[in-house]
Amino acid sequence: MKIFTRLAALSTVAFAAACGEPPDDTRSQEQVISGFYQQHLKTHSPGIPGADELKQLQPFVSQALFKLLSQASETEAKYHAAATEPVPPLIDGDLFTSLFEGATSFKLDSCESEDNRASCHVRFTHAGGNGGDDEKWKDKLLLVKENNQWRIDDIEFLGSGQSSQREYLSDTLSSIVNEYN
């Protein structure tokens, strides 16, 4: 009888643990977005990131986006190596926000999740220097859950209309890889 009672108690504990609160997806989403943009703003490199910056961004992006970023970075390196004269970068300006100059600060506005996908609006500011006005806009980050971790899978540029990019980061990167390879 003691064994039966212990088994019943253990199964009740296991059932309660299985039905416990789901992980806080919003907090995890905020951490990956914050980590990504904190790293990007630290280097604030324009254009396609080089190998060193890609390594720093890798923990925050999906496998698919990392592959596309790597391909674009390799394409840029080949493009410059093949040029007989100095050539401009394949992407001029900030790659990860709508504004050409990039952001000086960001804040997660909201996220909506469904299954293993999420859509998060991020508010950005580019502080106007020398008494200029601040530029403010929102972009949408599309996240995917890989190995139980949220990762940035794409960026939809909704912002200021000053972007030289296509509507989605993945479209911009794919275009470069396809055009210059």
Describe the structure.
With about 180 residues, the chain is of the alpha+beta class. About 40% of the residues lie in helices and about 20% in strands. The chain is built from five helices and four strands; from the N terminus they run H-H-H-H-E-E-E-E-H. Strands 1-2-3-4 form a four-stranded antiparallel beta sheet. Helix 4 (about 65-80) runs parallel beside helix 5 (about 170-180). The chain is globular.
Which short descriptors sum up this protein?
181 residues
Strand content: 15-25%
User: Which strands sit side by side, in order, in the main sheet?
Assistant: 1-2-3-4
Low-confidence stretches: 1-22
Give the overall average pLDDT.
85
Q: What does this entry show, briefly?
A:
The protein has 181 residues and is α+β, with helices and mostly antiparallel strands. Helix content is 41%, strand content 22%. Strand 2 and strand 3 form a beta hairpin.
Produce the secondary structure layout.
Layout: H1 2-18, H2 25-43, H3 51-57, H4 63-82, E1 105-114, E2 117-126, E3 135-146, E4 149-156, H5 169-180
Antiparallel strand pairs: 1-2, 2-3, 3-4
Helix pairs in contact: 4-5
